[in-house]
Amino acid sequence: MKRIDQPPIGIIVTWGKEMIREKGGLLSFIRFFELNMNEDGDTWMQKSKNKPIQDILYVYVIVCNQVRYKLFYGGYQKGETEAWNGDGIS
């Protein structure tokens, strides 16, 4: 099989059961997410231990074992960060 050396266009993140449960369940969390991401320019902050090693354009979000959302990647910030997460500061 021939390997094609192309840079990745995105990364995949998974919303885990624990995070969804903490936010009041799947339906509640999806409603909150979609309400806050319904206009151009809206921002979603997601914790990640590692930043991508190459420039990427998209983040694909897996929910219940399916790719449900495709978002533009906004960048990576290291260190302490405060963000509103719907039920307080995270």
Task: Please explain how this structure is put together.
The protein is of the alpha+beta class. The protein has one domain. Helices cover 19% and strands 20% of the residues. The chain has 2 helices and 3 strands, in the order βααββ. The chain has a 3-stranded mixed beta sheet with strand order 1-2-3, with no helix packed on it. The chain is globular and about 45 Å long. The termini are far apart. The model has no long low-confidence stretch (mean pLDDT 80).
Structural key phrases:
90 residues; 3-stranded mixed β-sheet; 2 helices; globular
Could you give a short description of this structure?
The chain has helices spanning 17-22, 26-36, and strands spanning 10-14, 58-63, 66-72.
The largest sheet is:
3 strands, mixed
What is the chain-wise order of helices and strands? EHHEE
Could you tell me the number of beta strands?
3
Number of continuous helical runs: 2
Beta-strand level of the residues, as a percent range? 15-25%
Label the overall shape.
globular
The unreliable regions are none
User: Taking strands numbered 1, 2, ... along the chain, how are they ordered across the largest sheet?
Assistant: 1-2-3
Radius of gyration equals 15 Å
Distance between the termini: 45 Å
How many domains would you count in the coordinates? 1
- What is the averaged pLDDT score? 80
**Range of helix content:** 10-25%
Structural class by secondary-structure content: alpha+beta
